[in-house]
Each structure stands twice: as structure tokens, then as C-alpha cells.
Amino acid sequence: MDHQIDDVAGEATFDATIAAGDKVEPRDWMPEGYRKTLIRQVAQHAHSEVIGMQPEGNWITRAPTLQRKAILIAKVQDEAGHGLYLYSAAETLGISRDELVEMLHTGKQKYSSIFNYPTLSWSDMGTIGWLVDGAAIVNQIALQRASYGPYSRAMVRICKEESFHARQGYSIMLTLSSGTDTQRKMMQDSIDRWWWPSLMMFGPPDDESVHTAQSMAWGIKQYTNDELRQDFINQTVPQAHYLGATLPDPDLRLNEETGNWEIGQIDWDEFWAVVKGNGPLNRERIAHKLRAWEDNAWVREAATAYAAKQAARRVEVTA
Ligand code: FAQ
After folding, report:
1. Tens digits of residue pLDDT in 228-268
2. What CA–CA distance (Å, rounded) separates 157 from 85?
3. Could you report how far apart the first and last alpha carbons of the chain are, in Å?
4. Among 101, 128, 220, 290, which has the highest number of CB atoms less than 10 A from its own CB?
5. Is the CB of residue 142 less than 8 Å from the CB of residue 127?
6. 253 in helix, strand or coil?
7. Atom 39 of ligand 1, residue of closest alpha carbon
8. Model's pTM, two decimal places?
9. Among candidates 87, 75, 76, 81, which has minimal Cα distance to 47?
10. Nearest CA to 169 among 203, 137, 201?
11. Given ligand 1 and candidates 39, 40, 41, which is best to mutate, with the most ligand atoms within 8 Å of its CB?
12. How big is the chain by its Cα radius of gyration, in Å?
């Protein structure tokens, strides 16, 4: 009975917090669906950052200059850091890191479709920074205003670092675009492969998005998938033109009335195939992640043993 009274009072406070645009904090009452939706989205986001290290990690040993190599290492390390902020944010919702990692390893939770595509040339490092981080920023700027405090605050830090990522990517593209014919061809080939998968990062079209309406009502999402996708397209098309590159879409045209760049049909069959585990590299990505998890078990064991030793010392000192 008392629980029911608590729930009614809690729900009223929760509704008022959302209506006022204030933040919901970990100790606050929240509907079970809100908690579950956040665990799903924040975990998927964390897993994406961690798996997202693989495509770029693949090129660290082959960066063309020492400077590019140092920048790429820093970027990949940032992605690990983003994963950690986000796992911490998810843990405030009452789930453990071990459970989250287990759900990634067993395929019960997803990560972004984009990281199942291969990185075939150095130019892919430029394209990923420019398009993939660019798309991530458009999405994450909006998420800075998400109603859940720990998620929203993690986004503020992450967005700052993502802007450096996008700039380093575009800087690679600028170098290639003013290089030799071979370099320009490599750049164009890379754009041709990454353009459509980048647009798919924003999720299914609005009429197929199962979570958007509820997530917007709860203030987790501020915009729909199609709205964010359109913002990204409008921002990116002029940048492609500046590079002297083309985008692989014969239907791409500027609608003078709306100011929007309108695109042709996205291949949603390809998107769902990748999401369901049948993209070009889904199996390899998880196999690599599992290998790293097992090979590095000793680091976790050593850290746990060290923490136990420190805790025992603290007890001795206070006793
Ligand atoms: N991939 O109803 P909706 C980065 C699933 S950024 C895989 O529209 P929602 C930075 C969705 O989970 C990339 N699955 O879902 C970086 C749902 O399935 P479920 C990560 C997808 O949540 C750069 C179903 O489809 N960013 O890593 C995808 O309202 C470079 C129905 O979809 C984030 O995660 C997809 N693309 O909207 C790192 C941002 N799209 O769970 C390294 C946070 C949808 O019911 C290198 N997330 N699905 O079985 C979000 O903003 C949202 O979750 C959306 C999807 C917009 C992705």
C-alpha cells in the first residue's frame, strides 16, 4: 500500500520534472519503462564507443606520418573514455558493468550498425572522423539536453571531444583532396562506401521507429531520427562539395523552398541485416572483443587484487 502511495507521489514529481525540462537524477523515482529505455540506449551507446575503436585501431600502425599517428591514437583512446563515462552513467540506473558487458558479448544488446563496416584505406580515417563522428555529434548535441542527468552530463564532455574528432577527420580529407589523383580517388572511394551507412546511424525512418514517440515524451530524445538525419545531410553536403567530392546519390537535390538537401532511398534492408548481426564484420567485431576480454583478464584480476589490498590497508589504519 505504502509502495502504491510512493509510486503516485513519485510519478507526479517525475512528470513535473520532465514538464519543467529539469533533470531526473539517479535517486529519483522513475517509471520502470524510463529506466529500461535509458539502460538500453546508454548501454548501446557505450558499446558503440568501445566497438568503435576497432575500425580505426586497425590503421594506427599504418598512419602516414608521426603526427597523424599521434592524433589517431588520441582519438581511439578518447572513444575508450567515452565508453567508460557511458557505462558509469548506465550503472547509475541499477545495472552492473559486468551485466552490461555480458549483454554485449552475448549479442543481447546492440551497438551502432556503422562499426560493422571495414576500413579499407587510410582515407577511411578521414571519412570516419568527418562523417561518422559528424553524425554522432549531430545526435549527441541534442542528447546533451536529455532528461536523465548523468547521461546528459556525459554528453557534454563527449561532444567537446567529438568536435576534435570531426575536425581531425576533415583535415585528413582536405589533405587528400588537394593531393595527387590517386589520393583524390582514394578519398572518393571512401566517401562512396561510408555515405549511406553514416545516414543509417540515425536509426530507422520515423514511421518504423518503435521508441521515438515515448523517448521524446520522456525528454530522452529531443528530435526524431529523420529530423536529425536531415540536419546532418544539410550540414554535410556543402562540406563534400568543398572537398570537390561527389556523394553516391543520383537523386540528391536541394529543395529551394525548404532549404533541405533531399536524398534518394536508403537501403533499409541493408540496415536491418546489419542490425540483426549480418553486416560485413559483425562476427569479427565481437570475436575480436571477446579475444581482448579474455587476453586482458589478468589486468582486471590485478586491479581487483590491488583494490582489495588498499581496502585492507585502510581497515588496518583506522583500526
Ligand atoms: N545501429 O526505435 P528506434 C559513436 C535499433 S556514435 C544499431 O529508432 P531509438 C561515436 C534500436 O536500438 C554511435 N541498432 O530506437 C564514435 C532499436 O532496437 P531495440 C552510437 C540501431 O533508440 C565515432 C531499433 O533499431 N550513438 O559511437 C540503430 O529510439 C567514431 C528501433 O530503433 C548512439 O548510440 C543503429 N544505427 O533510436 C565512436 C547514440 N538505430 O533496442 C567511435 C545514442 C536504431 O528496440 C568512432 N542512441 N537501432 O532492439 C540514440 O540516439 C538512439 O538509440 C538511436 C536509435 C537514434 C540510435
Report:
1. 999 999 999 999 999 999 999 999 999 999 999 999 999 99
2. 9
3. 44
4. 128
5. no
6. strand
7. 45
8. 0.95
9. 87
10. 137
11. 41
12. 22
